[in-house]
Amino acid sequence: MSQTFSIAVIGGDGIGPEVIAEARRALNAALAHEDTTLQYTDYELGTSHWLKTGETLHEETLESLRAHDAILFGAVGADPQDKRIPSGVIERDLLLKLRFELDHYINLRPTRTYPGVPTPLAAAEDFDFVVVREGTEGPYVGNGGTLRRGSEHEIATEVSVNTAHGVRRVVADAFRRAASRRGRLTLVHKHNVLTHAGNLWRRAVEEHAAQYPQVSWDYMHVDAATIHMVADPQRFDVIVTDNLFGDILTDLAGAVSGGIGQAPSASINGEGTAPSMFEPVHGSAPDIAGQGIADPTAAVLCAGLMLDHLGLDQAAARIERAVHTQLSQWAEQDTGQGLSTTERGEAYVSRIKALT
Ligand code: NAI
Ligand code: MG
């Protein structure tokens, strides 16, 4: 049965469009012999677009994005030296707005090593875990304010929002993932100090644990989790945590697994009421933009996550396998350094073709 998916593509700023071009090549190669077509629509959004037009994200653009099956997203963000763009405008009014409006409550960040590919950790053992970060609540919802600004008595609040609905649905997703992986789930929070939210999270996990006897779970304070992620990352399978802890922990996860250029992520609407979005963890990397040297690996892995989400699991597996074998080959033969973005992209495409 032939099928067509409509994909919105937001290349964004800096290296975003450079790495997304390689992701698209990988997608086309992975689907070359399947009766599935991806129809791409490019959207120009990000800081360059904002400077040109004053648009961060119009309602019409948002509605048009909603109509797609998925969104492939590069990176947005200005050079921090560029004083023409007020800090946070693009992050808040574009990135966070997309996540909230499209109800991306599952922020998925798979983290793994590849045989032979070096990591900054002393222990060379491979690991493979996924962080399921809540994406629509916590301290990121803008629930706060300032009183007596600029005075001795200034008050600033940033209230973390945790709803039973919001916590339960992300915990449910994490249990499903753990059940289809190695059957281990770790709740990361700080419930000894953040007792109200922490208690809600803990009860949500206890309730779901009863439905998943095949999943064993444990609890870890977020500060301890940073130690274990460096000292013993093999112990993790699925980590479920709130928006802020997940943000911080996944940067660490990216760093310990061999680099930000290889870390993909997915912002998922679990009910499918709006398109999910697939984006590298890295930003627009203004320091290397335009030089054709950005690593497209994270973007290519995002393409794989997107295919998996669309139910095209065989094509998704081809991308994952291609990246896996190619990275290991570069590492073993020590030939991975100094390659351009397109050279890397082409290597992945040939690997994918060999698998189809
Ligand atoms: P960044 O991730 O863009 O860069 C950090 C460092 O990693 C830089 O040295 C960069 O060259 C390197 N790097 C990143 N991706 C790479 C790749 N694929 N290949 C090789 N090297 C890579 O983070 P930074 O510098 O803090 O932020 C730059 C801009 O990106 C800012 O405006 C920031 O707000 C934005 N940003 C956007 C994100 C998004 O769109 N999701 C996420 C993170 C930052
Ligand atoms: Mg972050």
TrEMBL record:
> Among its keywords, does the record have NAD?
yes
- Gene3D superfamilies with a match to the protein in the record: Isopropylmalate Dehydrogenase
Q: Name one Pfam family in it.
A: Iso_dh
Q: Which keywords accompany this UniProt record? A: Manganese, Metal-binding, NAD, Oxidoreductase
UniProt superkingdom: Bacteria
Task: State its Enzyme Commission number(s).
Answer: 1.1.1.85
Determine if Metal-binding is one of this entry's keywords. Answer: yes
What region holds the Isopropylmalate dehydrogenase-like domain? 6-348
State the needed cofactors, names only. Answer: Mn(2+); Mg(2+)
Molecular function in Gene Ontology: 3-isopropylmalate dehydrogenase activity; metal ion binding
**Record-linked InterPro entries:** ICDH/IPMDH, IsoPropMal-DH-like_dom
* Record's protein name: 3-isopropylmalate dehydrogenase
Organism expressing this protein natively: Nesterenkonia sphaerica
Upper lineage is: Bacteria, Bacillati, Actinomycetota, Actinomycetes, Micrococcales
